[in-house]
Amino acid sequence: PTGTMKEYIRHDLIVNQSVFDEGIPLLETVLGSHEKRLEASPCYGDFTGLPPLCVCVSEHEVVYDQAILLAKRAKAQGCDVSVGCWKYMCHVFPMLCAFIPEGREAFNFMAKWIGEH
């Protein structure tokens, strides 16, 4: 792990050290080379002609850097991108909308975005 992955791994209840200990070796087995793993990441894809994107992310989750990189690259390729950012939330926190207010806020953000698009 690097960047926010390394910095926030201790805070994220969903993506923790075991994901890196067991998940990364599995990716290496399935995908092989580093280049193939890059090809599997949406961050390095072609966003040309895609419909608008809505990205919800926490400033303190392990994939924060990747989510922002994805949004920037998509926007640079002409994609309409909306980003909602929350603090101190775990990965996929919008799925917890029935349990935490921030999840409900993210759910409402996405619902409003869908209504506008």
TrEMBL record:
Q: Which Gene3D superfamilies match?
A: alpha/beta hydrolase
Record InterPro entries: AB_hydrolase_3 (IPR013094), AB_hydrolase_fold (IPR029058)
Q: What protein does this entry describe? A: Alpha/beta hydrolase fold-3 domain-containing protein
> Molecular function (GO) terms listed?
hydrolase activity
A Pfam family per the record = Abhydrolase_3
For the Alpha/beta hydrolase fold-3 domain, which residue ranges apply? 32-94
Give the highest taxon in the source lineage. Answer: Eukaryota
